[in-house]
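Section 5.1 Outputs to date
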Amino acid sequence: MLGLIMAIIDSTIVNVAINTIGGNLGATVDEVAWVATGYILANVVVMPLNGWLTALLGRKKFYAISLAVFTVASFLCGSARSIWLLVFYRVLQGFGGGALQPTAQAIMFETYPAEKRGAAMAIFGMGAMVGPAIGPTLGGWIVDNASWPLIFYINIPIGIAAFLMTLAFIPDPKYIAKPKGSIDWSGLGLLTVGLASLQFVLEQGERDDWFQSGMIVFLTIVSVVTLTAFVFKSLRDRYPIVDLSVFKFRSFSIGSFLGIVMGFGLFGTALILPLFFQSILGFTAFDTGLALMPGALSTAVSMLIIGRILNRIDGRWSIVFGILLFAWSTWLLGGLNIEAGYWDVFWPRLIQGFALGFLFVPLTTISLGDVPIQAMAGATGVLTLLRQLGGSLGIAILTTLLTHESAVAWNVLASGVTQTHGYSVNMLTQMVGTQSMMIAYDYLFRVTAIVFVLTTPLVFLIRSRKRQAANLAMAGE
């Protein structure tokens, strides 16, 4: 849990400090964006290799190495004095951080028996929510009152504690065997190039006007060709570097698709909300962190509740409840105007956070419920990767829609301005621009709500808990 908290705090805390880092290091907007992009690119490359690296190095050694790499890279990030050196260190940090969440989940699922996994996942999830709760607020305070290297240095004591506790307490399961066959370098190359290209397209596409950019077109083709070749190769190979056979389990396949949609909503709104608070409502970085905190705290409460009742109910109904509650919260956000203040966003955020506990805990538990324990490390890596890609896709779609809808609203509003009524042209331009952005944000929130509602029927394609228990019993026999 400590490793996961550290990784999540770092990813959320950096987002509110990007502008400050760019100013201090003399970087352009495009250059400083690589501080976030480089980390995510490294993340998505490592995540699907989780099962293979676990088998190669052993559970304890792999998790300890990941913690060590992340912690040392955090120190290097804080000491960087040029933007590209910082980006390089962030890539190293991403290689360590990309393994922390799926490995931590695999350890938990392998340690707890099936009947206790729901409660364990809820406790684990509460720890995971500390990052989103603390990250933006702490990052805002550091940006306003201290120097930006501190956002990386705070990882060091957490990382050291997690590293020592891993050596002391994390076991190496006996059933984890060394991977058979030699290292599949061609498969590793196809996966690395394909995922890195895809993530770059999703990260930079909107900024480069998508397919008007030759680079985006080229990398899109590269990602399609290499990932398609990787899938065919993995299905044909006897000992693939990523085991795609986990998709034969229906609950895992449906859960993975729902994870992409949930990533769309969670990561997409996680990006849009701070922009909305700061650009439209005029919140400071610290105020933005305070506005986001109620959602994280209410998630912790809902995880406590679902942890106690998940074994007594059909988890699919909990997922449906969480989806509809999340959709309601984003629909409420879609009704705000430029006069909104802290308490206007407090209740939608509280509802949104409360929904996440009922959504993610049972979704993760049920999705992995049919997967044999020997394949758990690989399955958690793939599941985490797909959720991350869903988040990147959501961010790409929502930022593109934001640009498009604000331009449409601008044209409509500007065409209706016929008299100045004593306002200067600059003041009218600013008013029209603000209102246009407000209309666009409301549109995004309500589109997100509709997408969530439309995915609800898919939940009932997942196997019920009783069916999963029967399958696991048969697998054990």
